[in-house]
Amino acid sequence: MARRTPPLLRHLFRGATDGGASRLPLDLAESRRSVTYMPRPGDGAPRRVTLIPGDGIGPLVTGAVQQVMEAMHAPILFETYEVHGDMTAVPAEVIESIRRNKVCLKGGLRTPLGGGVSSLNMQLRKELDLYASLVHCFNLQGLPTRHEKVDIVVIRENTEGEYSGLEHEVVPGVVESLKVITKFCSERIAKYAFEYAYLNNRKKVTAVHKANIMKLADGLFLESCREVATKYPGIKYNEIIVDNCCMQLVSKPEQFDVMVTPNLYGNLVANTAAGIAGGTGVMPGGNVGQDHAVFEQGASAGNVGNEKIMEQKKANPVALLLSSAMMLRHLRFPSFADRLETAVKRVIADSKYRTKDLGGSSTTQEVIDAVIAKLD
């Protein structure tokens, strides 16, 4: 992916000029850029990262990341905490660790169905105000798919919408569930999407909505996106209704670049795009806010695996390895990120070591060993 040069980044955040993308003072703009996945020069000092192995295949794939980080001699120190989806809440010491370290890497956490048990994933996002979910769905050389030239970034509002969890039983047999959309959250996710597009040389941002039916809620989301779009004249902006979006995704996905969506739609769109580009097992992602970031497998479908995969130790570590490359860039270690990404892509291109979901029969450890062998 092409990236802006430092002079262009400085120009982006320069004081008021003619119709540019940002009018923030440099010091404030730098702090806001912390939510993007851009390589920035660092001092090279080791960074502590909170590690949550999670449920199911989580310990396998997070263990894979630890092995590769050690093989690269990456300046990362992990603080490991046991968290499982059947807990009533994320332990306070885990939240404190993430607040202290600013960055977390996690495996999947099971979310119990029904029963009034809250999702720990949602708890983390709300507690740390991780308002933006980013999933990068793209073709990998050597991995055949129905469509080519797929390179989609799905940016999803992460804290409100249908996932607010505001529901109650009005009378027995009647449940009311509220969809919450605010201008504040809509504006900041739109700004994040356009900022990401600008800094990463992306050409187009597409807002996904259902404003033809939910005229007030999704209408407010669209209004916010339109306002922000006027501040980025160099980036094409368009809108698409979510049902048409799904149809277009499976028929002509190469038309999409950056997509910005409310919460529920983003979950569906990201998993659909991931399936088109090669599967959820190879798509990286993360959840970010102003001060904290949690990196994990990008698409949520099947992220804890099944008993057979765990018994055979054949979980696919690619998605979390690529998410870890995102994390390394976020931590200002771009050279390590490049080495990791290049090694993973070489293993996929060689097609000798692949897990079952990618058409192979390799174990997790065999894939890890292959990645380590490809490190420059």
From TrEMBL:
Keywords: Magnesium, Manganese, Metal-binding, Mitochondrion, NAD, Oxidoreductase, Transit peptide, Tricarboxylic acid cycle. Residues 48-371 form the Isopropylmalate dehydrogenase-like domain. The lineage of its organism: Eukaryota, Viridiplantae, Streptophyta, Embryophyta, Tracheophyta. Pfam families: Iso_dh. Belongs to the isocitrate and isopropylmalate dehydrogenases family. One of its GO terms (cellular component) is mitochondrion. SMART domains: Iso_dh. It is found in: Mitochondrion. It comes from Musa balbisiana. GO terms for molecular function: isocitrate dehydrogenase (NAD+) activity; metal ion binding. Its main location: mitochondrion. InterPro entries: Isocitrate_DH_NAD, IsoPropMal-DH-like_dom. This is Isopropylmalate dehydrogenase-like domain-containing protein. SUPFAM superfamilies: Isocitrate/Isopropylmalate dehydrogenase-like. Performs an essential role in the oxidative function of the citric acid cycle. GO terms for biological process: isocitrate metabolic process; tricarboxylic acid cycle. NCBIfam families: mito_nad_idh (TIGR00175).
